[in-house]
Amino acid sequence: MLRRSLAVLIGSATALLIGAPAATAIPRLDLSAYPAPATGERRWVIQLPGVLPAGADPELSRDPRDWRVQLIVAQMATVDCNLTSFAARLRPWRTSEASPMVFRVDRVGPLFSTRRACPPDQKPRKALVTMAGKPYVVPYNASRPIVVYAPAELELRWRLWKAETQSREALAQ
Fold it and tell me: Does pLDDT of 146 surpass 80?
């Protein structure tokens, strides 16, 4: 009875698969060219999509050469109503001339914040606190992953920036 049930199940599955369109597997990234993270570190890998769906805004460029990726280094912390951040250094790094470019976060400092008096009814809460400084932006390149090494207590997020299609004339003075 078990053999017959199994044969019916396999036959039904085969019939379903024959009529189904072929599925394509997502290729696994080959990270062999990138060093393993050191003790106390994590390796973050961002694989950018090659083709993005067209956006609803015709003013934004559809050309990936006009796009940038913002790397956002952050950590979870207990915060109050004050603005909180921390200092760190995010820099490009290579182990050798032949190795691919990666990014490394180091010199992570303690949290700092403004010193406003918070309302008495506002309780401290857990929040994602971002690294201080200007946004760190790298060119969009779907052919290579963006690899970032950072201390284990940090997190990495990313945001896609797209340029407008229209350029504006500057005034010479």
Answer: yes
* Helices and strands (H, E) in the chain, number of each type: 1, 10
What is the rounded CA–CA span in Å between residue 31 and residue 44?
Answer: 11
Give the burial string for 98-109 (b: 16+ CB within 10 Å, else e).
eeeebbebeebe
**Where in 39-173 does DSSP place strands (E)?**
41-46, 67-79, 84-86, 89-93, 102-106, 111-113, 125-130, 136-139, 146-151, 155-162
Domain topology for 38-162 = Immunoglobulin-like (2.60.40)
- Predicted TM-score (pTM) of this structure: 0.78
C-alpha to C-alpha distance for 170 and 60, rounded to whole angstroms = 20
Pairing of strands 146-151, 102-106: parallel
Q: Which two tokens stand for residue 74?
A: 């952050």
Distance between CA atoms of 135 and 158, rounded to whole angstroms?
11
Per-domain boundaries in the chain:
38-162
| Model confidence band, residue 50 (pLDDT cutoffs 50, 70, 90) | confident
